[in-house]
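Feature request, filed as a ticket because there's no other form

It would be nice if the structure record came with a short human-readable summary line next to the tokens. Right now we just get the raw output. Example of a typical job, pasted below so the devs can see what we mean:
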Amino acid sequence: MVTFKAKTHVARSDWEVYAHVIHALMLRDMRTRFGASYWGYVVVILWPVAHIFLIVGLMAFRGMPSPLGDSVILFIATGAVPALVFQYTSREAMKAIVSSKPLTYYPQVKLFDLIVARFIVEAVKGFTGLILIFFILICFGVDPIPDEPIMAVGGYCAALLLGLGIGAINVGILSFFPGWQIGYILVTITFYLTSGVYFLPQFMPPQIYEIMKWNPMVQIIEWVRLGYYTQLGVNVDYLYVLGMGFGTLTLGLIMERTLVRRLA
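Raw output as currently delivered:
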């Protein structure tokens, strides 16, 4: 007697379906941007690393000492890494919409899913680049381990949060002003040059320093550096920085749900 077993289909939960969608979007994003080989991913990671060491080389060529501590490499890295993490995260979020918007014709894919997938890829890429920078610093005889690791990691995560929030707002602006993709490059350059990557903002005149503190990236860089230089002597308004991060993310989500979907 032959018996047949009926195939049972286990229904996936909404979270499992969503996880598969994000995973598929991440794989497509990486293959589209980095190519079919791992070398493309390595090249993208090396760009911010090369940026940091180019600036260090220029400062060494001009004979400029480190504004803080004995290592100019460590000083630049503690400022450039969070600044570049914010810059890439906030910019790549809106580029994801431009390059992958046709995917939203599938009912399972939403615009916000594209942002989430790109954010995860950027976060992984950022942490991979950070590990590579640590390795290079060790090769140069510099100790990359902060005196207060939780402080430094907290500032780094705050840069990711702010980048995600500003990126979500950029998506909303881009939906009715396509030229913002180019205009935002000028904004990021201004943020980068005035955030204290190459100098210590607290040495500016008090009136100017108070104005600079309204730039959350200034305080995020100080946050990271406090993990390395406990004698820095600055006060970081953590509530302001986190409020800006969560506030911009909330505003970006509201814009995505109302403005972007209405214009899509």
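Something like this underneath would help us a lot:
The longest helix spans residues 72-100.
Confidence is low (pLDDT under 50) at residues 1-9.
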